[in-house]
From TrEMBL:
Organism: Marinimicrococcus flavescens
Descriptive protein name: Glucose-1-phosphate adenylyltransferase
Binding positions (alpha-D-glucose 1-phosphate): Y108, G173, E188, K189, S206
SUPFAM superfamilies per the UniProt record, alphabetical: Nucleotide-diphospho-sugar transferases, Trimeric LpxA-like enzymes
Keywords, in A-Z order: ATP-binding, Carbohydrate metabolism, Glycogen biosynthesis, Glycogen metabolism, Nucleotide-binding, Nucleotidyltransferase, Transferase
Entry-linked InterPro entries: ADP-Glc_PPase, ADP_Glu_pyroP_CS, GlgC_bac, GlmU/GlgC-like_hexapep, NTP_transferase_dom, Nucleotide-diphossugar_trans, Trimer_LpxA-like_sf
Superkingdom, natural source: Bacteria
Pathway entry: Glycan biosynthesis; glycogen biosynthesis
The organism's taxonomic lineage, starting at the top: Bacteria, Pseudomonadati, Pseudomonadota, Alphaproteobacteria, Geminicoccales
Domain Nucleotidyl transferase: 16-285
Gene Ontology biological process terms from the UniProt entry: glycogen biosynthetic process
Subunit structure: Homotetramer.
Molecular functions per Gene Ontology: ATP binding; glucose-1-phosphate adenylyltransferase activity
Length: 422
């Protein structure tokens, strides 16, 4: 294993390129106004903050973020929360929206094309390695360790992988590897995923994380850009080509996952559905959640909005403001309301006789008196009318809002406006 000094120098000469242009359509109305990486998570952060924080905590000080779909919310967050990297310290933070830099008619056509269109910017930094990251997953990972393994194996590309049950692997790009973790075949969403050697019930699924030598990557992107039959995508085109013609290695997430003694699993989540999003947020209210967001040794950096502390008021009869087994962010006012096993983002106001149970409430939501809301996700800025009841009548919930098969109800202001108009 390389020394810490060696791996640190690798990180300092690397560039983290975060792909954050996707919509994430399975999150339904949560991504009507924002890209998936900009969706709120965990009471204070956005999803993209995890990939960015991993890069920063790993020692990488040159970072770029490619944006495309409805990027204003994401760009505003990046400008406010990630503007502390300084060129005087050989640091940089580039926001790279699709801007027709290669052609006046060409936006980012694929994940590989997003980097190809910015090659001149990356080359200007004189970097040795590029770490390509998806900006829409929740996890804690030390990229230094993956960089060191990449160099030690002499790979041309190293692919970050997680071990998943073979039936689950049909939804992923799967790495078929030999006994040394060299990738011998890349299969996109295979019906019969190949097992891991020695682990017949598991398969290696791609995390959308790739490490390249910078010069090799630029050559491959230029080659791919000239291929008229390519979709200019890493998973569909670039990685399979290298697997066939070069040396591609799999890096197992367990080797670089950051966790403390309280975290039992190698936590990684694609919170890409309403159910998965609700579940991952509600899990944070557990006594010992699967993801420790309180780990001061691996902080999740974000835009720190200046707000007053949370406030709980009234204790008269049944008008009591309290929260149990919940995460409540700053600026919240729990005014005579009962909050149980819920996660409240910044500046939520729950008025008297409100009852929240298993609720994920995004910032700036105002909940009117006597409302009873169970197993809900409430979008930012929603005004819940007095007396609204959700989570007790499945048929009524499905008529008025978006209800998933598992019973999670997504509420947006547009849905409430339509309800009121009808």
């Amino acid at each position: 294993m390389p020394s810490r000094a060696t791996s640190t120098s690798l990180a300092r000469n690397a560039f983290a390129f975060v792909l954050a242009g996707g919509r994430g359509s399975r999150l339904k109305e949560l991504t009507d106004r924002r890209a998936k990486p900009a969706v709120f998570f965990g009471g204070k952060t956005r999803i993209i903050d995890f990939a960015l924080s991993n890069a920063l905590n790993s020692g990488i000080r040159r970072i770029g973020v490619a944006t495309q779909y409805k990027a204003h919310s994401l760009i505003r967050h990046l400008q406010r929360g990630w503007n502390f990297l300084r060129v005087e310290r050989n640091e940089s933070f580039d926001i790279l929206p699709a801007s027709q830099r290669v052609s006046e008619t060409q936006w980012y056509e694929g994940t590989a094309d997003a980097i190809y269109q910015n090659i001149d910017i990356l080359e200007s930094y004189g970097i040795d390695h590029v770490v390509v990251l998806a900006g829409d997953h929740v996890y804690k990972m030390d990229y230094e360790l993956m960089l060191a393994e990449h160099v030690a194996t002499g790979a041309e590309v190293t692919v970050g992988c997680i071990e998943v049950p073979r039936p689950t692997a049909t939804a992923f790009g799967v790495m078929h590897v030999d006994e040394n973790d060299r990738i011998v075949e890349f299969l996109e969403k295979p019906a019969d995923p190949p097992p891991i050697p020695g682990k017949p019930d598991l398969a290696l699924a791609s995390m959308g994380i790739y490490v390249f030598d910078a010069r090799f990557l630029f050559d491959q992107l230029r080659r791919d850009a000239e291929d008229p039959d390519s979709a200019h995508d890493f998973g569909r085109d670039v990685i399979p080509f290298i697997v066939r013609h070069g040396k591609a290695m799999a890096h197992r997430y367990q080797r670089s996952c950051v966790r403390n003694e309280g975290e039992q699993e190698a936590y990684w989540r694609d919170v890409g559905t309403v159910d998965a999003y609700w579940e991952a947020n509600i899990d944070l209210t557990s006594v010992t959640p699967a993801l420790d967001i309180y780990d001061r040794d691996w902080p999740i950096w974000t835009y720190a909005e200046i707000v007053p502390p949370a406030k709980f008021v009234h204790d008269v009869g049944d008008r009591r403001g309290f929260a149990t087994s919940s995460v409540v962010a700053g600026g919240c006012i729990i005014s005579g309301a009962a909050v149980e096993r819920s996660l409240l983002f910044t500046n939520v106001h729950a008025h008297s006789w409100v009852r929240l149970e298993e609720a994920v409430v995004l910032p700036d939501v105002d909940i009117g008196r006597h409302a009873r809301l169970k197993k809900v996700v409430i979008d930012r800025g929603v005004r819940i009318p007095d007396g609204l009841v959700v989570g007790e009548d499945p048929e009524a919930d499905a008529r008025r809002f978006r209800r998933t098969e598992s019973g999670v109800v997504l509420i947006t202001q547009a849905m409430l406006d339509q309800l009121e108009a009808g």
